[in-house]
Amino acid sequence: MYILRVQNVKKNYRSTEVLSNINMNIKKGDIYGFLGENGAGKSTLFKILLDLIPEDSGVLERFGNEDKKNMDYFFKQTGSIIEHPYFYDTLSGRHNLNIHAKYMGFYSKNENTSRIEEVLAQVGLEYIDERAVKTYSLGMKQRLALARALLTKPQFLILDEPFNGLDPKGVVEIRNLLLNLNKVHGTTILISSHILSEIAILATTIGVIKNGIIIKEVPMDVVRNEEQQKIELEIDDSSKAAYLLEEELGIHGFKIVSDYTIEIYDITVDRGRLTKTMVLNGVNVNNIAIQSGTLEDYFLNLT
C-alpha cells in the first residue's frame, strides 16, 4: 500500500517553474529521505502535499484517495514540520499543544493532558515549566514542533529539516525516536535534512531533487551497493588537479575535499592514466586508493 503517490506535479511562481513533473512514491512503513540543495523545491513540494499551496497540475494520491478526496482523514493521520515552525509565542509549550489538540478534534481534557505529557517526554521536554515559548532556544522550539507533529498519533510524518537547531545529543535522541516510531508503530516518514549521515541511518528509500525535478528515487540498499567505493586522490595542488580532471580527462564527478585531496566517484577511471596525466602536468601524486563511499558521495555525484 502507498501512503503517498505524486504523479507529474508541476508548480510555477509567476514565470518560473519551481517543480517540474514531480513523481514520488512512498510505501506504508517507509522512511523516505528527500535530498536536495537549498532552493531545489523540497519545501514547496511539502507545502503542496499538505495542501498549504495548490499544485498547478498533476495528481496526488494520499492514503489511496486521489486529489482532494477525504482530506479530513489525511490531516488527522498526518503530522508535520514545515520550514520554521510557528507557535503562540506568549503562551507555554503545553498551552500550544492543548490548542493544537482541540483544533485537531481531541476534545477530552484528561486525554489531552495525558497525551501532551507523553509527547513532551518523547521529545525530551518533560521538564518544561509554564514559561512562554518565546523564551525557548531554537532546539527547544524544534523539539516542541516535533511534539506537536506527534500529538495525534499520526500514521504519516512529513518532516522538513527536523534536526535544525539540535545539538549532537539532540540529533541522536530524535533519530532514535523516529526509528522507534517507524519500527514499533509502523509510522511512515517523509524527511528532508542536510545532515546526510542521519538520512543514511534512517532512510529505507531516498529521493533526490535538483532544480525542481526528482532525478532519482531508489531504495537505500541499492545506494549502499552502488556507492560502496570511491577513488581518493592525494596530490600537492588540488586546484590544478581538478582542472586536469575536467579538461584533460573529462572527469566531472569529483569533489575537492582539501588543498591536497580529491574524491572521484567513478571507480572505473583508469588510475594509471590518471596518475600519468597528473605527473606530466606538474602535479605530484602522493597516493591514489579506493575508499568506501557515503550517501554524501552518492548525492554529490548525482547533483
From TrEMBL:
PROSITE patterns: ABC_TRANSPORTER_1, ABC_TRANSPORTER_2
GO MF term list: ATP binding; ATP hydrolysis activity
Pfam families: ABC_tran
Keywords tagged on the record: ATP-binding, Nucleotide-binding, Transport
Domain ABC transporter residues, every copy: 4-236
Keyword Transport: yes
Xref: InterPro entries: AAA+_ATPase, ABC_transporter-like_ATP-bd, ABC_transporter-like_CS, P-loop_NTPase
Domain of life (superkingdom): Bacteria
Keyword Transport assigned: yes
Family under the similarity heading: Belongs to the ABC transporter superfamily.
Protein name: ABC transporter domain-containing protein
Species in which this protein is naturally found: Enterococcus phoeniculicola ATCC BAA-412
